[in-house]
């Protein structure tokens, strides 16, 4: 301590002491010191009504949360984006007056940002997490934003709890750890004490939380919206994006290793696929429920922790989006794009989902801070393709040069322009829903079933997927230090599946759950990735080659695989063209040092070397790919390594010296994605 500090008796620590607060044991208040009587529910017009603007507590809580970080997004900070276009298969005029969902002759430009949720901009991309899937449609009637995730439900039912969820999920404030991970005490403490999260946690612990790529990932609007036609008739709707390549995932060990090998794995995959002309495609699907059928289900259709089983409410495929252009500048486009679920066009409206209602406030507030003020809509990536006119003026970042003396409504000096548009002229008119009820902080009784659909999800999984869930819970809770929290989670998920809870209870040293079993026997086959599309196109194969390979025959295999859309890249001791590679198709792009089996969907051993070091490196690739259930192929000398590894006749292992036969069988093995029959879970 300096002499000056000693004399003043005012060290830096003493200066800070007056700002230190211990919240434990205290009553909850607003920032103005007002004691709060309810922190679970936003203020609504009736239990199932919309959230009210006068809810000062919700607004203060959400405003503070939205402004906690500058400049990166608090959540969804780690993202990557691409441009595309949407084509409609059939007119939806029966359901909506939205022009881009009626005219099949038009192509609508789109911009899509994929993201992780929990991590910062510098975090790895293959962590266990939900993924954002946000789409901006640049329509002739204005921008429409479908701001969703790769999971169809969410952790909470009311937006007032969103800051709590994210505070629990983010690195713990006392030591800023762990980064981009849910395997820690505060997250699981939140889960155990907010049991509406049960269904979402099942998805988050499943393979859906570690997707193979953005191109093989479903997207969901999550919330219930309304479609309104030109007669004013409304239907409830949920939005889906279905990847044309099917929905596929990594395995956990593979995901962890990729984080170390290539923290940019997902964005690199998206970028390279578009650069190669392998454009990602997603079909738009709608689940539609007539208003009169709102209460005909065993769940509340407005509850964001519930999905609509596809077997009960089929998904109607109505169009396709193709991502066909990479961004020119990540900051100007990916980082400055501003999404908002309140950016709608005529014919698309909202429901009283209380999570959606809160998001309608939160997103604008967030952009005001992140993008420097109210003119974020003037940034090139956010500008609509149609003209915009209003009386808003000035502010940070203003680009529009408004002429004239009038900037108010109503006026006579400019003939009362810009003037409101009638509904016939395309003016947006809110659906006239009848609202009745008292102003309350409450939640509908129909929202209180937290476990039925979590059990539905469990029942719908294949045996490998169930085992992965058990492993995920065991890993995540194995990182939790609090014995109390671990036990609370065991007791909670006994309501979902006693088998699941008992398995991870044993792994984490908790008491097994009491003998209770869910009465839910229903399943939804659409939820299992085992039932997804099997398409080898754009899959990436690592080809291990040596200098003494049969270049002509290997080249023939690579051409046959390419004809099926499979991308092959060669791996060897050093870069360049192998001595035996007299065919232009054979060029080594990776060495054993720069590549890893986890960066490929399959491994092909072409042989061509008897060097001990070469064999050792090749064997490592084989064993790791085998442990991750990936397809493994071998021809010529490569087959000898399969014999040495004792996996010659196992599932997904293909060996032949007949090049045509091999290429066909290997492509089929690649299309299957994983070969769970190896029974090495």
Automatic annotation (TrEMBL):
Residues 1-32, 512-534 are annotated as: Disordered. InterPro entries: Catalase, Catalase_AS, Catalase_clade2, Catalase_clade2_helical, Catalase_core, Catalase_haem_BS, Catalase_immune_responsive, Catalase_large_C. Residues 29-417 form the Catalase core domain. Its EC number is 1.11.1.6. Signal peptide: none annotated. It comes from the Bacteria. It is an enzyme of class 1 (oxidoreductase). GO terms for cellular component: cytosol. GO terms for biological process: hydrogen peroxide catabolic process; response to oxidative stress. It catalyses: 2 H2O2 = O2 + 2 H2O. Residues 521-534 have a biased composition (Polar residues). SMART domains: Catalase. Belongs to the catalase family. HPII subfamily. This is Catalase.
